[in-house]
Amino acid sequence: MWIIFAVLTVIAWGCSDVCFKKSIDDDSSVLDLIQYNGIIYFGITVIYMIARGVSFNFSAIVGYLPAGLCYLASMFSYYA
Protein backbone atom coordinates (compact mmCIF):
# COMPACT_ATOMS: atom_id res chain seq x y z
CA MET A 1 0.00 0.00 0.00
CA TRP A 2 2.91 2.34 0.66
CA ILE A 3 3.87 2.35 -3.03
CA ILE A 4 0.56 4.02 -3.92
CA PHE A 5 1.24 6.88 -1.53
CA ALA A 6 4.83 7.16 -2.76
CA VAL A 7 3.57 7.52 -6.33
CA LEU A 8 0.96 10.07 -5.25
CA THR A 9 3.69 12.04 -3.49
CA VAL A 10 5.83 12.13 -6.62
CA ILE A 11 2.83 13.21 -8.69
CA ALA A 12 2.00 15.95 -6.17
CA TRP A 13 5.58 17.26 -6.21
CA GLY A 14 5.56 17.21 -10.01
CA CYS A 15 2.25 19.07 -10.20
CA SER A 16 3.50 21.57 -7.66
CA ASP A 17 6.58 22.28 -9.77
CA VAL A 18 4.45 22.66 -12.90
CA CYS A 19 2.32 25.24 -11.08
CA PHE A 20 5.45 27.07 -9.92
CA LYS A 21 6.67 27.22 -13.53
CA LYS A 22 3.24 28.37 -14.78
CA SER A 23 3.12 31.08 -12.15
CA ILE A 24 6.59 32.32 -13.03
CA ASP A 25 5.86 32.32 -16.78
CA ASP A 26 2.55 34.17 -16.41
CA ASP A 27 4.06 36.91 -14.21
CA SER A 28 1.59 35.98 -11.50
CA SER A 29 1.97 37.16 -7.95
CA VAL A 30 3.50 35.17 -5.15
CA LEU A 31 0.04 34.76 -3.64
CA ASP A 32 -1.12 32.98 -6.80
CA LEU A 33 1.81 30.64 -6.50
CA ILE A 34 0.96 29.82 -2.90
CA GLN A 35 -2.68 29.34 -3.88
CA TYR A 36 -1.79 26.84 -6.63
CA ASN A 37 0.40 24.93 -4.21
CA GLY A 38 -2.32 24.86 -1.57
CA ILE A 39 -4.90 23.55 -4.01
CA ILE A 40 -2.65 20.69 -5.06
CA TYR A 41 -1.74 19.72 -1.51
CA PHE A 42 -5.37 19.95 -0.42
CA GLY A 43 -6.38 17.63 -3.24
CA ILE A 44 -3.74 15.09 -2.31
CA THR A 45 -4.81 15.29 1.33
CA VAL A 46 -8.42 14.57 0.40
CA ILE A 47 -7.34 11.60 -1.74
CA TYR A 48 -5.24 10.29 1.16
CA MET A 49 -8.12 10.66 3.62
CA ILE A 50 -10.49 8.82 1.30
CA ALA A 51 -8.00 6.03 0.55
CA ARG A 52 -7.08 5.47 4.19
CA GLY A 53 -10.58 5.98 5.57
CA VAL A 54 -9.44 8.75 7.89
CA SER A 55 -12.26 10.62 9.56
CA PHE A 56 -12.39 14.39 9.85
CA ASN A 57 -10.96 15.50 13.19
CA PHE A 58 -11.19 19.19 14.02
CA SER A 59 -8.72 19.01 16.92
CA ALA A 60 -6.05 17.54 14.63
CA ILE A 61 -6.56 20.41 12.19
CA VAL A 62 -6.12 22.93 15.00
CA GLY A 63 -2.94 21.09 16.03
CA TYR A 64 -1.44 21.17 12.53
CA LEU A 65 -2.53 24.72 11.75
CA PRO A 66 0.58 26.43 13.20
CA ALA A 67 2.88 24.19 11.15
CA GLY A 68 0.87 24.91 8.01
CA LEU A 69 0.98 28.65 8.62
CA CYS A 70 4.75 28.51 9.14
CA TYR A 71 5.06 26.60 5.86
CA LEU A 72 3.01 29.25 4.04
CA ALA A 73 5.08 32.04 5.57
CA SER A 74 8.30 30.33 4.51
CA MET A 75 7.00 29.85 0.95
CA PHE A 76 5.95 33.48 0.76
CA SER A 77 9.31 34.76 2.00
CA TYR A 78 11.24 32.42 -0.33
CA TYR A 79 9.36 33.27 -3.50
CA ALA A 80 8.87 36.96 -2.73
Throw out a few tags for this protein.
80 residues; mainly alpha
Q: What percent of the residues sit in helical stretches (DSSP H or I)? A: over 70%
What class do helices, strands and sheet pairing give? mainly alpha
Strand-and-helix sequence, N→C?
A: HHH
Rounded to the nearest angstrom, the radius of gyration is: 14 Å
Strand proportion, as a percent range, falls in under 5%
Name the shape in a single word: flat
Major sheet attributes: none
Whole-number mean pLDDT = 78
Distance between the termini: 38 Å
Uncertain stretches? none
The count of β-strands is 0
Helix count from the secondary structure assignment = 3
Overview of the molecule:
This protein has about 80 residues and is an all-alpha fold. About 85% of the residues lie in helices and about 0% in strands. It contains three helices and no strands. The radius of gyration is 14 Å and the shape is flat. About 5% of the residues are buried. The model has no long low-confidence stretch (mean pLDDT about 80).
What is this entry, summarized?
With 80 residues, the protein is mainly α.
Question: What is this structure's SSE topology?
Answer:
Blueprint (H helix, E strand, L loop, with lengths): L1 H24 L4 H23 L5 H22 L1
Helix pairs in contact: 1-2
